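Pilot study result, target chain (102 residues):
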Amino acid sequence: MSTEQEGSYQVGYKKPPPQHQFAKGRSGNPNGRPKKPKTINTLLDKALTETVVVNENGRRKVISKFEAFVKQLVNKATAGDVRLTKLLIAFHQAGCNPPIAW
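Predicted structure:
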């Protein structure tokens, strides 16, 4: 080691020479941590929380897509669709909560 280096800075373990250190304000990991791949659940939650505008009793109303889906399911089940009626009863008996936060 040269004695002509600046001050009392000693090169050693976890102390690289100044010419090999990162410049001020520059990260050693410029791209950052890689993002997690999106799962089907996160994509579904995102899609179901999007809002849509519906006409209900002559008024425009903003509701989530999940709420619109449930309304359509109930309406078609009450209109006589046996398959959807069975599905609705199964959901109700299972105590299914919505998969997303309202």
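One observation from the pilot: The first helix runs from residue 40 to 49. A full batch analysis is planned for the follow-on phase.
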